[in-house]
Automatic annotation (TrEMBL):
Annotated protein name in UniProt: isochorismate synthase
EC number in record: 5.4.4.2
Record keywords, A-Z: Isomerase
Recorded family membership: Belongs to the isochorismate synthase family.
Lineage top rank: taxon: Bacteria
Species, as recorded: Lolliginicoccus lacisalsi
SUPFAM superfamilies per the UniProt record, alphabetical: ADC synthase
Lineage of the organism: Bacteria, Bacillati, Actinomycetota, Actinomycetes, Mycobacteriales
Amino acid sequence: MLTGVDRSAFVLSRPHRSVIGEGRLALFDHPGAALRALADGSARAVVGALPFDLSEPCALTVPATFTVRDARWRPPVAVPPLPSIVGAREEPSGAEHMRRIAALVARIDAGELAKVVAARSVEVACAGRIDPHGLLAALVARDHAGNGFCADLSPAGPGMEDAFLVGASPESLVRRDGRSVSCWPLAGTAPRSPDPVVDVQRAEELASSAKNVHEHGFVVDWLRERLAPLCSGLRVEARPSVVATPQVWHLGTRIEGTLRDPAISALDVALHVHPTPAVGGTPHEAALEAIRASEGSRGFYAGAVGWCDSRGDGEWMVSIRCAEVRGDRARAFAGGGIVAGSDPRAELDETSAKLRTLLGALGVPSDMLGGV
Ligand SMILES: C=C(O[C@H]1C=CC=C(C(=O)O)[C@@H]1O)C(=O)O
């Protein structure tokens, strides 16, 4: 048992630092109210999650204690073991996901869209309650960079009691330290291989893949466009580099700038750039409409998780490689960018590789679902 520890505490674990928010002084289901509380000094910090669709409720908390440490998160005491797996169900099925991708590719060919991210989920049923910090501990231990997050979703209101968003995202939406702002968008993916020679070959192929570089470019263009009015001296790496997670390789581009107005906070910037085409698409509105039509609400998957303090500093991660956890259930999500020429089977396999982050940490055997 975790005694004397806030089992619903917010945690963001990063390679360089961890942020922990315990207790709850105030809850906000709208980011505007959180921004006002930070600006008027009534909140020292705000932590939590933004949904994919910003017209839906967010889940932000003013914690009673807010701790920043210069190292990745480690559980303060032993966490309970995760319960055994009873079953797992894909939503939609792999066949339906491929059908949706084929329909999106047809819309891209017709010139209605240039890029759109298609996502699916797996709902895992367990024999007992999933401790959110127990799952977080498993994720952080399996992630060589030490990435992980856990956010209480109950501030989003009715229906979200006992819901948490738990994940290990490699993608930083925005980080603000004083006037410095940085983003590290990821898009373009290749699965890792247990064979080191094949693994390196896959990374090299990804770096030179015209399709993946094209898919990645939409995200960089969007961020450049959104950040240029806010920043002076915006620096965007000329070409993407290859970034490793335990399950996949990604293309990533570092972007840095200096805020023209020091009153603009990390949360302001996150709200200004979210959702990027790493989770949405291009053109922006048409892609969001296509996602709504094919998937319905994504809830907090593909939103953002992070923190912002009263100085405006903070960090927000894109909430991918995550699951919504409620009681004995966890619903894990993964998506992938669809562009002209995307192959539905390869895209399905890509989401299976991404889903392994969560399914592996939960202990779901790989043969429990077709190919996931
Ligand atoms: C939308 C997801 O990943 C994004 C981040 C990195 C690579 C991506 C891709 O190659 O499609 C996605 O844009 C997800 O993992 O659910």
